[in-house]
């Protein structure tokens, strides 16, 4: 059973209405009662407000008769099933009601089996209808999804210069393009950066933008291509006759305003539309799309939430060689793991990018380059996901947000790498200490322990002192003396035997070493506890 269906009962005789309610096998049929009313007007109002699936009504009722109520509901386009309850006397009225879509009429006194059979028939018909509608919806969705996938692939091929023939494109992608006017639009959806992304909601909104674009422009275009892109944008290509130029321009503005109003229904979103110049041939489509993308990207400078026309002001492309000096200082700061120095150099790179008047999209390219370089320098390049990082960067809508994101990421990578390096360096020292604590009664040397854990003696000596603050000999001495102190406190074993048990065969030498570390001789230390 697909869902619980709502039933409204209308009869001016309360007892008859209650009887009908008692006779219905609600649970078995998957039905629920939404009310029992005693006049046709109230029934009509409840039908409009609560949309019941089934209405069981008497013919004779005050204010509106059952027949008048059914007629009014039918004229309003209400889609529900009516079952008329009538006495023999009003059979003719029931017959007239059939033309308004009444399923059947039941004669009083009501037969329980007949009532439930009729209800079961309606439920079965509704379930069958809903199943068919679901199948139709699925087929339509598959067709729609197929169309948008074809549109997306067409745009990808255009941008990669793999599609240069309009007739071939029309055949391959089921389009109807003509060599007339073209204009590219990029709708970039931004969310507040301090709000966690709701991926499902974002995809829903992007798809709505795409569908609304079709509705907005289909009447004035020859053909329209629209596709959701991975960087939270929708690309639209308009193909139209020259006579529609002014209409297209006005519709872009009207549609942008419509989208802005639509997004008021959601929190934390802003829409920017990048608009290309008009081009007049199929071969220039890729240029139009790139212009619209660059216009949308220029919200970095102009702010988001607006219509931005592509501007042909002189701009330059990003080239790492133009940032060579800044990169060398940046690389040195990353390699030596100095977060503050990295921040300073990133600021310098962004200032230089502004001085060189990079395209807005090239600011994103520079940010990606700085991140990739950090991964390379820290020798973690295999963990760098270029697609993910590019998507994140392109969803930042101001230069300051972009710069600060790069700074945060670089500093976080340095912090993680430093922690990992410290753990790598600490691990052999911890292994060495564990070995020393297990074998301190034996004659062990720095060379022995370094060889045991597989390190060069000199390097291990430096590493050990860096981690513990003491050289190897003093640390081993400390382990031995701590054990000796414990035995002196807790046992009555002779001092010379304690010396032997912590690695000293010569009792006099043991006493000297104990005095050096603790400040008193072993025997005097024992007297403090006995």
Would you summarize the structure shown here?
With 530 residues, the protein is an alpha/beta fold. It has helices at residues 14-23, 26-29, 40-50, 66-75, 91-97, 112-159, 166-173, 199-217, 245-262, 285-297, 299-302, 324-335, 339-355, 360-377, 386-394, 399-439, 446-453, 457-468, 472-490, 495-501, 507-518, 522-527, and strands at 5-10, 31-37, 54-58, 81-86, 102-107, 181-191, 223-229, 233-240, 269-275, 307-309.
Provide keyphrases for this structure.
single chain; 530 residues; alpha/beta; 5-stranded parallel sheet; 5-stranded mixed sheet; 22 helices; 10 strands; 12% strand; flat; transcription regulation
- Total helix count? 22
- Decide which structural class fits the backbone: alpha/beta
E-strand count = 10
Anisotropy-based shape: flat
Mean of residue pLDDT values: 88
Gyration radius, rounded: 41 Å
The end-to-end span amounts to 86 Å
Strand arrangement across the biggest beta sheet? 2-1-3-4-5
Largest sheet: 5 strands, parallel
Low-confidence stretches: none
Content of β-strand: 5-15%
**Portion of residues within helices:** 55-70%
